[in-house]
Amino acid sequence: MMLFSLSFLQLLLKFNKRFYALISVLVILVASTDLSASTKKYLVEESFGYYIDANTWAVAPTGGDTVFISSDRTKALKIRNLKGSKETPIVFINFGGQVRIDSPTAWGALTFENCSYIKVTGTGDESCKYGFLLSANTCGLGFTELSTDCEAEFIKISHEGFMGICVKKDYDGNPPSPAPVFSNLVIHDCFVENVTEGMYLGETKSPGMEFKHVKVYNNIVRNTGRESIQIANMVEDVEIHNNTLLNAGMDNVGSQRSLLQIGDNSVANVYNNILIGAPAHGIINMGKGNNVFTNNYISNCKGMFIDNRLFTDVNQPIVVSGNYFKDNTHSEIIESMNELNVVVINNNKWNSLIPFFLNNSGSKSNHIFANNIHTAIDEIGFTNEQENDYSLAESTPVKYLLLGAPGGPEYFEDKKNNSKNTKSAQIILSSEMIIDEKEGINIYSADYLVDEQGLSLDKNEHASSEIWKPYYNMDYGPYHIYFDLGRQYQLTEIALHDMQGIADMEVSIGEPGDWQEVFTEPCDEYKSWKRHSVNVSSRYVRLTIDESLSAAINEIVLFGYKESGNLKSADAETEEDKTLKCQNPVSKSLKVSIDEDLVGEYNLEIFDLNGQMLFTQEYSDYSSSEININLSNMDLKKGMYIIRYRNDAGITRSTKFIKQS
């Protein structure tokens, strides 16, 4: 058949040149198609609104793209309707340090609504284990509505709201038919504390949205008002393993006082977990069958309770095998009221002076009970509970070494005291950082300089968008734009993508009104990255065209690191956190708020975007942290201006304000 097809094709090619041309074009297109096209990078800062969706940027994130959430972000985020792909999810990652979202009036701190193929990871900073620290009114992290295929890792939730992690859509027991399915839920290496429900996975009522292919592992959940983890409607391929669950049921509410609850319509393979401390049971199983519990350490609770609910697969067993029950306080270690499934209870060990098993099912034919041993059981200890290091202590017996979450310190020793992290990394730029000093007179906006931040310079990936091109001639020149990076950085490299205009572009640092040239790029090579090694410190980076519009640059990439440590303690601020703030927009007067530690003797200065000083005033022995500046006597046109704080100690702070007419 293949020979016939080739011969037939050759015959067509011989007699039909148009067909040949068409095939040639198709071959060229296929050969030139890069199926692994460059991914894009996006930055979410404090200035962004509550909702993030396909309309947030000109081009929406898709599979393989990365969304960086700035460490300056403190307000809640709800991400809606974004979809990655099975092979390449959209990755959300902390950037520039630990992201601390604290929104007491928001339902959730970080919520993904109707999203699919998403990975949220707190691995963006080497100074801390959990790159996100989340707190809100009700929920820390949520995958809600019809979301599916989501992963969460290295996230800490610490608040007094109802849920730590919530993954469900409520149908009140009446879902559409067929029921919606959430596939491939993965939650690992997270830390949840002080909430009511640690992880609320699946609607409690059945039937409901169904979950398939679920993995929950390496998590630490402690000090919860109700269950550490509860699941329901998890119908296929569910694993819960190597979690450390501590001190559940602290609110002592009815039947919700246990550490782990396997709810109705659920299967589960539960193994290698540590469950310590609850007024009720360590594990409650009300699953449908195919529920297997092995090699778990269950201590200081009422042991285990087994029952059945609305959904039961009588052909699937419930197996409790090889577990350690230590210091359990009840009339028995395991009670069963399941009369339908085969229940296998064997090879377990317990040390309390109480009976091991009570069959309250009313059936004597569905329980298999063998080789359960009453014996001494060693106590599990942790490395440093005061510092939330729940790795197993060095004295842990070998038989327990596979149990529980990996643990480890939350913050790493060489970073604890705000020591410098001098590892250079790309500083993701966005159009929101650009201040155009000649706003409105561009052919191609300066936004084109930052629209391809995902390119790899080491792989020699080239920018392809338009160059930044001001007006048609230099009549309005020189032209300047600058980037406000949001804080002070030590810059190690500035890379410009040259499109060969053969004209100079000057790169400067400093601040509005006080610029120092770093280098001048001649722009003399076509489609080439010009990589300039630098060793300068600045919050602002300025580009200047003052010779010719032929200075053709279509992307800039910065590398460096924050000057002060990435880690911010909960009760202390670094020098960089002492800020200058002002109201926006303004009309006749400008109210300026100065951090109390910066009051005293200082100057306030106002500049236009060209760097021309329009106002300066010295404030001596001024104790108030709020200043009102009268703008009525200044001939300020409508637009954007810079206000700068400067004192004799060399500390400067700048921020922008907008003057209305």
From TrEMBL:
Pfam families: Por_Secre_tail. Gene3D superfamilies: Galactose-binding domain-like, Single-stranded right-handed beta-helix, Pectin lyase-like. Residues 584-657 form the Secretion system C-terminal sorting domain. InterPro entries: Galactose-bd-like_sf (IPR008979), Pectin_lyas_fold (IPR012334), Pectin_lyase_fold/virulence (IPR011050), Secre_tail (IPR026444). It comes from the Bacteria. NCBIfam families: Por_Secre_tail. This is Por secretion system C-terminal sorting domain-containing protein.
